Amino acid sequence: MKNKVRVRGQLKTYLQWPLLMTALVVLMNLAAGFVNSIAGLVMSVFTIMYAAIAFWIYIYGRKKLLGGLVEFSSEYAWVQKQLLSEMALPYGLADNEGRLLWMNEKFKELLKTDEKGKNVRKNLQVLFPEITREVLASKEPTTLHTSYGTSLYRLDLKPVFLDLEQEQNLGIEEIQEEEEKLIAVYLFDETKIVEYRREIDNQKMVCGLIYLDNYEEALESVEEVRRSLLTALIDRKISKYITGINGVVKKIEKDKYFFAIKQMYVDQLRESRFSILEEVKTVNIGNEMAVTLSIGLGMNGENYCQNYDFARVAIDMALGRGGDQAVVKDGARIQYYGGKSQQAEKTTRVKARVKAHALRELMETRDRLLIMGHKMADIDSLGAAIGIYRIAMAMNKKANIVINEVTSSVRPMMERFQNSTDYPDDMFINGVKAMDIADAATMLVVVDVNRPSITDSPELLQKIKTIVVLDHHRQSSEIITNAVLSYVEPFASSTCEMVAEVLQYIADGIKIKQVEADAMYAGIVIDTNNFMNQAGVRTFEAAAFLRRCGADVTRVRKMFRDNMADYKAKAAAISNAEVFEGSFAISVCPSEGLDSPTIIGAQAANELMDIAGIKASIVLSMYNGVVYISARSIDEVNVQVMMEKLGGGGHRTIAGAQLRDTTLDEAKEKIKNLIREMIQKGDLS
């Protein structure tokens, strides 16, 4: 039965047409005989002849017609097979496991096989590692980009569902009967296309800006007659650096430069880690202060104007992070290079006075202030918030401090305000309450943080339009973009120091109460580790101002003493510290039974820096399923750069990060790998 050819469809109807026409002729014959018997008789003769011929064609001619169709289909299948075999495009068929069952000549030539295809590893997953089991199991067409040998290919995989009885026409002998799907494999050589695209990208223009960070200060540190020479040497260094990569540089101000280069040279700059950052520091003609500069690059924008806008954003990021570094904004991606040195403290308070007046003008236009710090607020965040609260009270503005989680580090200070009749019951509110009372006449002041994701109530940033940011941490790629006033000073020791300066300029006659002075003074003491970290002239001036307002050193010290459990945990973290690579102390702080293990971890990291030979300390703490990392250094290692690579940030000597969905052991190993990588690249000494 299987050898019989079954006729169906339009062909069957076509072969039945003579019989249908015979019936029509018979009807015509009957009609003619009804009109005229003689005519009907004559027509009957022709009808019989037509019927005989029609039956002969249907019975005997049908076999010859079908034979011709079978012969044609066989020749067509052979031609089709030859076309597939000789097709200029590499093409093959594979099974569900990725085994190549058949391939055309181009595919064999690509894989360098013999005529029988015996010398090839017949598995797509071995030939092209990009192909996974999930890709092979997919019922939808899949496109991958891969390489084989020296060429690049676009690999198209399309599932093909066939009648298994017909697959022998392609010479497939290894197919199993239970399989229902084959995978058609197409390879498109895109080596030239990729090369041309890369060449086009290489020819694109990259806009750049170079700003001298400390131009005025460097000039003041050298004799007046030699200042022009210092400027000329700096100009020559920068001009030689840019022209060395076939770029064009133009001085637009006394301390600002614009340059344009081809994109092909950006990788060269990255590999050299923007060597001009270090070269310009070698310019010394007697100046006491080394010159540093910042670089901002913008690339891969839709047009030249957007590249320039990217460069402006990049240079702002570099300056906001303390200068002495290069920032590359490649579309939405931002990369940082350099930033190893500490930004010099500016002794002038002009900027503080200008920002204070701007803050006053904004506050005068609003009826209510909400003051918010970062999640798990520390004493610097709380102290700065209280300083802004005092400003609002002095201007007769209703104000609230937003804090969701009260840690053990700030609870003693908060209780002094909550138990005092001088302050309203709603001085401290949570984020839910803040969302309810926020309206168009509300201003939000964010202190001690400039990253929206780690603010105490990020949703407030979307609801409130007037936002002010005061912070001393270096900016990262994630910043509060809708702030109408941003005062970020990375050289400041703490946000409390900045707020103390603002208090002195924002209005005359503001009287700070002792408890408020204690809170702000405590913020400075804790963030500077008792004036040992990043404490400058203005830090001591701010502390002296707070002391005159009634801050008491003894009272602050007694308030922030550790309890026995916290002290034992800190001691355990120090005693279990591991010295990695000879100069990096890494430890884990136990968190069981502690209210704020992250605070204890930070204190342990500070203590580890008192050990001789330790360049940086990293202490890990597990809290609510999140690994908190505290990193500290003195002056040899920029821990802020290290923590940024883990998604965190901070200062050059004080930084931190948070890792989710990981264990302490995994986090510890990740930090070790990061240290090895940064040492290898020269980012760490």
UniProtKB/TrEMBL annotation:
Cofactor: Mn(2+)
Keyword Metal-binding in annotation: yes
UniProt keyword Cell cycle present: no
The enzyme's E.C. designation: 3.1.4.-
Cofactor mode of binding and number, as noted: For phosphodiesterase activity, probably binds 2 Mn(2+) per subunit.
Subcellular location: Cell membrane
Gene Ontology molecular function terms on file: hydrolase activity; metal ion binding; nucleic acid binding
Keywords (A to Z) from UniProt: Cell membrane, Coiled coil, Hydrolase, Manganese, Membrane, Metal-binding, Transmembrane, Transmembrane helix
Sections of the chain in a coiled coil: 657-684
Transmembrane residue ranges: 14-32, 38-59
List of residues binding Mn(2+) 2: 380, 448, 472, 527
Record InterPro entries: DDH_dom, DHH_sf, DHHA1_dom, GdpP/PdeA, Oligoribo/pAp-PDE_c-di-AMP_PDE
Domain of life from the UniProt record: Bacteria
Pfam families noted in UniProt: DHH, DHHA1, GGDEF_GdpP
GO CC terms of this entry: plasma membrane
Leading EC class: hydrolase
Residue intervals of the DHHA1 domain: 601-676
Reactions performed catalytically: 3',3'-c-di-AMP + H2O = 5'-O-phosphonoadenylyl-(3'->5')-adenosine + H(+)
Ranges for domain DDH: 369-524
Binding site for Mn(2+) 1: 374, 378, 448
Signal peptide: none
PANTHER family: BIFUNCTIONAL OLIGORIBONUCLEASE AND PAP PHOSPHATASE NRNA, CYCLIC-DI-AMP PHOSPHODIESTERASE GDPP
Assigned protein family: Belongs to the GdpP/PdeA phosphodiesterase family.
Entry function: Has phosphodiesterase (PDE) activity against cyclic-di-AMP (c-di-AMP).
Protein name per Swiss-Prot or TrEMBL: Cyclic-di-AMP phosphodiesterase
